[in-house]
Specification:
The protein has 13 helices and no strands. The chain is an all-alpha fold. Among the domains are: 85 residues, no CATH class; 53 residues; 32 residues.
């Protein structure tokens, strides 16, 4: 039995060894080959101040544009703007359009990776080159919303409220965002109340009264804060009523006595003279 199985096992072992050897050679060959997408280092560019440098940068930018490597294209276009201004980009309508489209694409890409400062830079370059789109306003509004969320996480409530107002002013009022912010402020107000942070609590309640006056947690907390003041108000009201009743009773007593005297003077003139 073992003799019959020896030959197939040896054959399988030999094939496996050959396969591993071929795979290792191909892997090593692939590793040693240059990466076709690798870019030439910037050291190959003409030095700063060389008259041929803008043209070289423009060629690099166009190559990156054609390969849809937007971030690299934007890097070269931005180098041109920084070194020589936008003149080389606006001399040709095609160059101007390519640069504007590249900046637009880059703004959307860096927004996804949370590089907020670059978003406005790229959008501004695109608009300076004549590309204006409603998508720019949408992207800017999303950027403001992200910034106010970040301020809220950092507990910078006043900054968050200012950015929230800017977010709502940049488009159609966002009802879902208003409700979400109301819940966030109510949670923080409850924590402030629990830890006796009165100033912070009242500031949050003030914002809630404007943004989410119908929020259930806000109304519950408002009722809980107002309850201790109710007995005092009731006592003041009762005291005022008692004083009013006493005053009215006193006036009535004086009026009654005056009426009796007047009646006596009318019915008994002689008595009235004695009086």
């Amino acid at each position: 039995m073992l003799r019959r199985m020896r030959t197939p096992l040896l054959l399988v072992f030999a094939l496996a060894t050959w396969g591993v050897t071929i795979y290792s050679e191909q892997t090593a060959r692939g590793t040693n080959q240059p990466n076709p997408s690798a870019r030439s280092p910037d050291a190959s560019l003409p030095p700063l101040g060389d008259p041929s440098r803008p043209a070289a940068l423009l060629r690099r930018a166009h190559d990156s544009y054609q390969s849809a490597d937007w971030l690299v294209a934007c890097e070269y276009y931005q180098m041109i703007i920084q070194e020589t201004g936008s003149t080389p980009l606006v001399n040709s309508p095609q160059t101007k359009e390519r640069a504007a489209q590249s900046f637009h694409k880059c703004a959307r890409l860096v927004f996804k990776v949370h590089e907020d400062k670059k978003v406005e830079t790229y959008l501004s370059h695109a608009e300076e080159l004549g590309l204006r789109s409603f998508r720019h306003n949408v992207l800017r509004r999303k950027l403001v919303r992200r910034q106010y969320h970040r301020s809220l996480v950092n507990e910078d409530i006043e900054q968050a409220m200012a950015l929230y107002a800017e977010y709502q002013a940049r488009g159609t009022p966002d009802e879902d965002e208003r409700i979400w912010l109301g819940d966030q402020l109510a949670q923080r107000a409850r924590e402030a109340l629990r830890h006796a942070q009165q100033n912070h609590f009242h500031a949050l309640m003030s914002h809630l009264s404007v943004i989410a006056p119908q929020n259930r947690d806000y109304r519950d907390m408002k009722s809980a804060v107002d309850v201790p003041q109710q007995p005092l108000m009731r006592a003041l009201i009762v005291t005022a009523v008692i004083i009013l009743v006493i005053a009215l009773f006193s006036l009535f007593s004086h009026w009654s006595a005056w009426a009796k005297v007047a009646r006596a003077q009318r019915d008994h003139p002689l008595l009235a003279e004695d009086i």
